[in-house]
Queue: 3 jobs
Job 1
Amino acid sequence: MTKKIVLKVGGSLSYGDHLPQLSQMIHQLSAENLICIIPGGGAYANLVRQDYLKYHLDKKIAHYMAIMAMDQYGLLLHHLIQDSIIIDDPSLLPVKYRTGVFIWTPFAYFKAYDTLPYSWQVTSDSIAAYAVSLMQAELFVLLKDQNGICSADPKGAVDCQLLSTVARKDLQQHQIVDPFFIKYLPEKVKCWIINGNHPERLKELLIQGRTLGTRII
């Protein structure tokens, strides 16, 4: 059965070696699903952060520069994902298409509607959650460079244990998404955080409804 899916492809995945394999998997899965890709900011957004501090940029200017960074990463993903299509508005997808993979480069949309706070606390994760509402998606997957949410800091804790589920109200204490994420995340959508460096987990999730990762409940 065809699913409407939003995939947030984290910018951190561009630093590893598995982005081409993930891109190929997304292409394969789009044959039977309607997939909207939300790009992260990655290295492009980090450059904006540096200039924000160096040149004391106005918050509004930095806000739009950071969103433009998502557009740049989106163009990279467009190059990597076969038959992908760049779009300006995810809300039009369910009306016009049944399957395929579409990449939202969000600068034009937010420049027109200007609906987000000018803050570094609004990241591409929140913009991806915002897209879930626009598209009325049934499944929302954040693809990051970690397996999901751990019970302790995965970089410093020996006894870190992957949590299979985390309640929405407890997300902030794990600091894996920005503070505005819950505001934009629809209550009824199925939401997962999985490791994008293992593309087979995305396939398993779409086919079996579960995989190694953390589900937000």
Note: The beta strands are 4-9, 34-39, 85-87, 100-104, 139-144, 149-150, 162-163, 165-166, 190-195, 214-216.
Job 2
Amino acid sequence: MSETPYQSIQKLCRIIKTKPVNWVAFDQVLSAVEEINWLDENTEETILSEGLQVFFELYDGTDTAEVIRRFLAQGYDVSANEGRNRGIHLGGLCWIT
């Protein structure tokens, strides 16, 4: 049985809490996410926006930018979900610069 997006987010958050961040472990969890462009229709949150809520609260901009870069490298589509994905990561990058 595959993990839910929320379970994947929890794993990613546990990994990023450790310093230095184990980016290899992060990439392993991220690459196992079956629906990288998942959208919760009730909350209109994506897997990245759910994760960024935690990342923004806990981490500096360097880690947040790296998280976004890794999502994009894994195939996170900025035009997915009728464009809802776009604002999430671009807003995140603007916030940290």
Note: Residues 5-17 form the longest helix (13 residues).
Job 3
Amino acid sequence: MSLPIDSKGKFRTAAVLALIVPDEINYFPRIVLIERTEGPVSHSGQISFPGGKREGDEDLWATALREANEELGIPADQVMLLGSLTSLYIPPSNFMVHPFLGYMNEVPNFVLNESEVKRVLIPSINVFLDDKNISLELFKSTSGATIHAPSFKIEDVSVWGATAMMISEIRALLITE
């Protein structure tokens, strides 16, 4: 099956960082997500991992680290690469996104780029392992279409779309039968 890539067969390349940080109180790791600011760009107002467009022939891991630093002030030299997740094509923005899983020994002091990030969410990974936090909801895409999609409920928001797919992969890696 071919991907529904734009009419020229080209897509833009991006990378995101799924950053795992410790929780010294509950002892379950947490994962860093952002709520993007509202605006005229694709994915505005959505919950996502920090990340963005690759610049030039930059290494994809370097892209994920650069974007996490630009959006949240995460120091690249303190993030340990755990591995990569499955790359994912996102039709509304025509991006092929390459997600990376990273770890820091402590929760960083976030410095938000307020033009891109409204707030940081750091839910426990346990939230994503609990089936009661998974549901099927209606969402309005950036193209205006109404979509019935699986989502994860965290705090006061729903995580859906590409980010939910990436979290599902992390969840699958953690669940043992």
Note: The helical segments are 60-72, 125-129, 161-174.
